[in-house]
Specification:
By secondary structure, the protein is α+β, with helices and mostly antiparallel strands. The protein has one domain: Cytidine Deaminase, domain 2 (3-Layer(aba) Sandwich), CATH 3.40.140. The protein contains 4 helices and 5 strands; from the N terminus they run αββαβαββα. The N and C termini lie far apart (32 Å). The structure holds tetrahydrodeoxyuridine. Tetrahydrodeoxyuridine binds next to strand 1 and helix 2.
Length: 140
């Protein structure tokens, strides 16, 4: 994937992270999702006093995309860390539910970028992060 596009997605993920509503965990996540029509959808984690009702940043971005008619996912960048920390300590890998959710609209070739900064990043395919997955094919 084009390096400039990767950087654009990371910048958008950092921008999305500024909107994180994470008053319970203090862990702020941002995601930027690229769809096949060239749109970039941003998402942040949105927590809830009933903890289980929390929405992760990746699914926030995914829901925004699908609900606007963009349901073919090409790439996503994710950044996360404690809200008040000066810099991100670790890569924020997507949780299992989000990996499964992304796989509904992205192929195993979909690019998944986790980043601590614009230059410090790791790039995977969704297939690498979710091998042998359950899909529509499983229930044919
Ligand atoms: N979180 C995400 O936004 N994405 C993930 O893939 C894992 C976790 C959020 C949910 C919760 O608001 C906070 O991180 C701590 O779990």
């Amino acid at each position: 994937m084009d390096e400039e596009l990767i950087q654009t997605l990371i910048i958008n993920a950092f921008e999305a992270r500024t909107k994180s509503y994470c008053k319970y965990s203090g862990y702020a996540v941002g995601a930027a999702l690229l769809t096949s029509d060239g749109e970039i959808y941003r998402g942040c984690n949105v927590e809830n006093s009933s903890y289980g009702a929390t929405i992760c940043a990746e699914r926030c971005a995914a829901l925004k995309a699908v609900s606007e008619g963009s349901n073919e996912f090409m790439a996503i960048a994710i950044v996360g860390g404690m809200k008040d920390a000066k810099e991100l300590k670790d890569y924020a890998y997507p949780c299992g539910v989000c990996r499964q959710f992304l796989s509904e609209f992205g192929s195993s070739d979909m690019t998944v970028i986790v980043a601590k900064s614009i230059d410090d990043k790791k790039v995977f395919t969704l297939g690498e992060l979710l091998p042998e997955s359950f899909s529509a094919d499983s229930i044919k």
